């Protein structure tokens, strides 16, 4: 299954990443039926805001001779995965600005309502197979459990020896009109992603208390990933 996914990704992404890099970072965005039009826009714009934040931009600009390379895709059901940003080495401010502009200009297209989290993991892993980088990291954003396609726990087991790290950004419910129990409410979903999805070196789960907090949570996650790179592992 993974070999087929690699072939598919090579076709849509234009082949393997050629430039040496210190980290390959693939970001998978949940656009399943539980994500409405407003939340879709908050997710795409939130990632753009996080990439444009000072600490993240500074981290990305370090060592342009061995850059971080980014890819962004959105996913819902097992057959509904679209590559928004193919592998792009972030070698300059202009390149990063181009990625941000692409995210801000992306419009939603119809998707199946299902949540194929395991399939999204396979797609991201296939993308990372193309990247010859010191570190390879897959980020999955999601606001619910998988209900279609391969089970995430089975995919996690299948990819355990792939050498990649899978992190997650778990999105809870937006603030209610009265009261606020979001912190405890997000706990079970975070536990699910921790047990079923993430794995690899220093893997972690970040949380957003609703899509209103997505940009802040994404910035925290990117800072943690980019600022803790072990540069000494580069040859």
Largest sheet, described in full?
Answer: 6 strands, mixed
- Tell me the name of the CATH homologous superfamily: von Willebrand factor, type A domain
Record field, number of beta strands: 6
Give the distance, in angstroms, between the N- and C-terminal Cα atoms: 32 Å
> What's the architecture in CATH terms?
3-Layer(aba) Sandwich
Computed Rg: 17 Å
Number of domains: 1
Lateral arrangement of strands in the main beta sheet: 3-2-1-4-5-6
CATH top level assignment: Alpha Beta
- Enter the CATH topology name: Rossmann fold
Class derived from helix and strand content: alpha/beta
Runs in which pLDDT lies below 50 for 5 or more consecutive residues are: 1-19, 230-235
Which whole number gives the mean pLDDT? 87
Run of helices and strands: HEHHEEHHEHEHHEH
Helix content: 40-55%
Beta fraction: 15-25%
The 3D shape can be described as: globular
Q: How many helices does DSSP assign? A: 9
Description:
There is one protein chain. The protein is α/β, with parallel strands linked by helices and 235 residues long. The protein has one domain: von Willebrand factor, type A domain (Rossmann fold), CATH 3.40.50. The chain is 41% helix and 20% strand. It is built from nine helices and six strands. It has helices at 2-13, 37-52, 54-61, 93-105, 117-129, 152-158, 182-185, 187-196, 214-226; strands at residues 21-30, 68-75, 81-89, 133-142, 165-171, 205-208. Strands 3-2-1-4-5-6 form a six-stranded mixed sheet, sandwiched between helices. Strand 4, helix 6 (152-158) and strand 5 (165-171) form a beta-alpha-beta unit. Helix 2 runs antiparallel to helix 4 and helix 3 (54-61) runs parallel beside helix 9 (214-226). The longest helix has 16 residues, at 37-52. 44% of the residues are buried. The model is unreliable at 1-19 and 230-235 (pLDDT under 50).
